[in-house]
Specification:
With 337 residues, this protein is α+β, with helices and mostly antiparallel strands. It has 14 helices and twelve strands. β2 (45-49) and β3 form a beta hairpin.
Length: 337
């Protein structure tokens, strides 16, 4: 049996919860109401939200604020949506100002408060509850389904790419989550299906520029290239940022970090020569060119596709991206969404 007093056990628990403990947890540990009140009066504990207390001196971090919102929403509450995306480390999802929390429908009796959004879910049993940075959170696949209802198309695609890039969920995991939620009907479920279809089974782009470039081509009605495509030769192999493999057409997106150094200065010409001798045409683009002249970029890629396919690349024999080539969806190039 522990020799610690109840209030000490509460402080011990708080140390695992970003310095926080709830009134319900205090009762379970045997901390009386009068003890809690006394500690608040003396400044040893501080009120951090409805039924939540912070140990004096505990760091006031974003994680602590998120954990406090989860604890205040009840024992079944989970960080979700954009809050979960940040906790899972998805690039492009910075720490949100408003904390989003999911609870079971009809079992939450609290009220909405400033800085916190509480989502009541009928599909709580599909939330894949786990912890991240010590905070109860929805699983990666459920997080994607949740995001489909609250972010735009490009952000949703980015979230999917990040989940796959970080190997947080497999394609079967993602499709299973979609199917289970689709049976019940859910806001954003059609959009979730579309991004899954768009990327299904493919390597996802490693960089934001590659993702934006793919979106630019898609908006212009051009077929979507493969991302992170490996080309192998005799005792060498190189990875192209984007590629149309059967046309031997590659696209390299040159960032300063990866190409303006002594190693790249020597290696890049060797790589380009080997790819050219292997029959590949490789187009190079920088961020500045992408931003300043998107229409020219699109026309160059369109011209290269026509040249490599011998005419109308939509009617050429073969499969230029190892996936079905669809007809143009939207005419005219634009710079992303």
């Amino acid at each position: 049996m522990s020799s610690l007093r109840p209030a000490e056990r509460a402080a011990q628990l708080a140390a695992t919860q970003h310095g926080l403990v709830t009134a319900a947890q205090c009762r379970e540990l045997g901390v009386t109401y009068s003890t809690v009140s006394r500690r608040v009066i003396t400044g040893a504990w501080e009120r951090a939200g409805p039924g939540v207390y912070r140990m004096a001196g505990a760091p006031r971090t974003w994680q602590a604020r998120a954990h406090g919102a989860v604890l205040a929403a009840g024992p079944d509450a989970l960080a979700s949506h954009r809050t979960a995306a940040h906790l899972w480390g998805l690039r492009g999802f910075p720490a949100p100002g408003r904390i989003e929390v999911t609870v079971p429908r009809h079992r939450w009796t609290g009220t909405q408060r400033s800085g916190v959004v509480v989502h009541e879910s009928l599909a709580y049993d599909l939330a894949q509850a786990t912890t991240r940075q010590g905070i109860p959170v929805t699983g990666p696949a459920r997080t994607l389904i949740d995001l489909a209802a609250v972010v735009d198309d490009f952000e949703l695609l980015r979230a999917l790419d990040e989940i796959r890039r970080l190997s947080l969920a497999s394609w079967p995991d993602l499709w299973e989550a979609f199917l289970l939620h689709a049976r019940r009907g859910r806001p954003g479920i059609v959009r979730a299906r579309e991004v899954l279809r768009r990327r299904d089974g493919r390597r996802v782009p490693e960089t934001e520029l590659a993702r934006l470039f793919m979106t630019l081509l898609d908006d212009a009605g051009l077929p979507e290239p493969l991302a992170e495509h490996w080309v192998r030769g005799d005792r060498w192999r190189y990875r192209l940022d984007l590629a149309y493999p059967s046309l031997l057409l590659g696209i390299e997106l040159d960032g300063k970090e990866g190409h303006l150094n002594e190693v790249a200065f020597e290696a890049d010409p060797v790589r380009d020569n080997r790819l050219r001798l292997a029959g590949w045409t490789v187009l190079h683009y920088t961020w500045r060119r992408f931003v300043d002249a998107p229409t020219e970029v699109v026309e160059e890629v369109r011209t290269a596709l026509q040249s490599r396919s011998g005419g109308d690349f939509y009617r050429c024999s073969g499969d230029i991206t190892a996936g079905t080539v669809s007809p143009p969806r939207r005419p005219g190039p634009t710079l992303g969404r």
